Amino acid sequence: MSAVNNTATTRVQYKKRSQTKEIWRRFRKNKSSIIGMIIIAILIICAIFAENIAPYDPVKQDYAHTLEHPSKEHIFGTDEFGRDIFSRIIFGARTSLSVGLISVSISCIVGGVIGAISGYFGGRIDTFIMRCMDVFLAIPSILFNISIIAALGPGIVNMMIAVGVSNIPRYCRIMRASVLQIKNQEFIEAAKAGGALDFFIITFHVVPNSLAPIIVQATLNVGSAIIACAGLSFIGVGISPPTPEWGAMLSNGRDLLRNYSYITAFPGLAIMITVLSLNLMGDGLRDAFDPKLKR
Amino acid sequence: MLKYIIRRIIMMIPVMLGVTFVVFTMLYITPGDPAQTILGENATEETIAELREEMGLDRPFIIQYFDYVWKIVTKGDFGRSYTNQQPVINALIDRFPNTIILAVSSAAIAVILGLILGVVSAVKQYSIFDNFSMTLALIGLSMPNFWQGLLLMLLFSLKLGWFPVSGFTTWKHLILPALTVGTSSCAIIARMTRSSMLEVVRQDYVDSARAKGQKEYIVIIKHALRNAMIPIITAVGLQFGAMLGGSVITESVFSIPGIGKLMVDSIKARDYPSVQAGVLLIALSFCVVNLLVDLLYAATDPRMKSNIEGKA
C-alpha cells in the first residue's frame, strides 16, 4: 500500500515540475556546459560594461608605447599603434558577440519561418522551397558570404547579413523536419477542427513546439558565426579598422608574427575560448532538451 | 547503377542553374558600373556607353543571365577579368589544381586521423585516450583555422624553420596548410565516428563475431566500422565542401595561388567576373563530391545499393 502511495506522490511531484525546470535540471548536471555558460556570461558582462572594464581607450593610438610586450601596465601588450590589446579584446567581445547573435537571429528567424511554411503546407510549396535551399546549400558558406559581401560591399552590417543569410537553409531544414513531426499530431488537428487560421496554428502551436532543435542549433551556430565573421575580417572584407574586432586584430598582427606573436595570440585565444564555451553550452543544451541524443 | 548515376547528374543541372542564377543576380545588383570600372575614372560618357553596348550590359537582366550561362556551357567562357582583361577561365585553370590538391590532402589528413581517433575513442570509451581525444576534437572545432594556420606558421616555419612560410611549389609547402584546413573537419569526423561506432559496437552481431573467435581488429574494422560508415561518409562529404571553402582563408594565410586567394584578391579589386567564376567552380566541385558520396554509400552498404538499383 505504501509503495502505491509513494508512486502516487512521485507522480504528483513529477507533474509539478515544469518542462523548463526539467531541462534546467538535466543541463545543470553537465559540468562542462555550466563552465561554458559561466564563461559566456562573463563575456556578455565584458561586452556590456566594456567602457568600465577596459583600462584604455581601444582605438586611441599612443606612439610612445608601440609594440610593448605584456607587462603590468598593458597586460596583453600593445600593438603597432600603441593601442592596448587587452582593451581591444574587451571591446572586441562586444563586436564579436553582437555580430554572432545578430547574424544567427537573422538565420533563425528567416530560416525558421520559411521552414515552418515549407513543412506545414507541404506539396508544391515545400518542393519549391526545398529546391531553392538545395541551391543555397550547394555553395560553401564562406563563398556565399564572400559573394554577398562582394555584392553589398564590406562593413559590419553587410557582414552580419552575409553570415545570417548563408545559414538560412540550415534552420529552414531543421524547422521543416520538426514541423513535419508535429503537424500530424492531434492538437494541431484539434486546432484545425476548431477553425483556427493557418497563420495562428503555425505561430501559436507549431513553432513553439518545434523550437528545441532550433535553440540548440542556434547556440552551436553563434560560435561558427563568430568564426565566420572573424574570418571575413581577417581576409579584409569584414569589419574595417580601427573598430576592435578579434579577426581584424589577428590580421593586423600577422606581419609582426615573428617577433610580436602575442599580438595574434590573444585575439585568437579570445575567439577560441568564446567558441569553445558556446560549443560546450550547445552540447549541454542538446543533451538537456533531448536525452535520447546524448552521446 | 549507371541509370542512377545518370539520373543524379541530370538532377545536378537545375541546382547548378540555380547557383549560377543566385551568383549572377547577386553581382548584377552590385552597385557600380563594370564598364566604368574597366575604363577607370577618366573615361568619357561615350566610351563608357560604347563599352556597355559591346559587353551587352545594356540588355535586359534575364537575357544577360542566359547569355552568361550559354557562354559558360558552350565555350567555357566566364567573361574577362576587369583587372587584367584576360579570360577568367585562364586564371581558373592555373589555380584550380592548387585548391584541389590542398582540399584533397586536407581531406586525407582529416579522414585518416578522424577515423583513427573516433574508432579508438569508441572502443575504449571513457578511457584517458577517449577523454583526451574528444577534448582535442572540441578544441580543434573551436579554433578558427586562420589562427591555427598562423600558430603553425609561427612554430614550424618561423621558429623551427622546418617548413617554408608561404608559396606552393614543393610538398613541404603543402603540410602546414593541409593541417590547417583539415583540423576542424578531422574533429567533426572523429566525433561523428565515435558516436556512430558506439551505436554499432554494442549490437549482438558484433558479439557473435567475437564469439566465433574472430580477431578483435577484424571485428572492429570489418563488422563494426563498416556498419557505422554511412553517417561517417555523410560527414566526410559535407566536410569536403567545407574544406573547399575553408581553403579560401587558408590560401590567404599561406599565400597559396589557388581559387580562394583569387577570389579574395578579386573582391578587393572589385573584379566581379573572377568572383563569380570562383564561386561557380567551387559549387560545381561540391556538387560532384556530393554525387561521389552518394555512390560511396552504395559501395559500403549493400542495402543502399539494392535500394538505389530498385529506384533506378
From TrEMBL, chain A:
Domain ABC transmembrane type-1: 93-282
Protein keywords: Cell membrane, Membrane, Transmembrane, Transmembrane helix, Transport
A Pfam short name: OppC_N
Subcellular compartments: Cell membrane
Main location: membrane
Annotated transmembrane regions: 34-54, 101-123, 135-157, 214-239, 260-281
GO terms under cellular component: plasma membrane
InterPro entries: BP-dependent_transpt_permease, MetI-like, MetI-like_sf, OppC_N
Bilayer topology term: Multi-pass membrane protein
SUPFAM superfamilies linked: MetI-like (SSF161098)
Gene Ontology biological process terms in this record: transmembrane transport
CDD domains membership: TM_PBP2 (cd06261)
Nucleotidyltransferase recorded as keyword: no
Family: Belongs to the binding-protein-dependent transport system permease family.
PANTHER family referenced in this protein's UniProt entry, alphabetically: D,D-DIPEPTIDE TRANSPORT SYSTEM PERMEASE PROTEIN DDPC-RELATED (PTHR43386:SF1), OLIGOPEPTIDE TRANSPORT SYSTEM PERMEASE PROTEIN APPC (PTHR43386)
Name of this chain's protein: ABC transporter permease
Organism, as annotated: Sedimentibacter hydroxybenzoicus DSM 7310
TrEMBL record, chain B:
CDD domains linked: TM_PBP2
Domain ABC transmembrane type-1: 96-293
Highest taxon of the lineage: Bacteria
UniProt subunit comment: The complex is composed of two ATP-binding proteins (NikD and NikE), two transmembrane proteins (NikB and NikC) and a solute-binding protein (NikA).
InterPro entries according to UniProt: BPD_transp_1_N, MetI-like, MetI-like_sf, Opp2B
Name the record gives this protein: Nickel import system permease protein NikB
Record membrane topology: Multi-pass membrane protein
PANTHER family in UniProt: DIPEPTIDE TRANSPORT SYSTEM PERMEASE PROTEIN DPPB-RELATED
Tagged with keyword Ion transport: yes
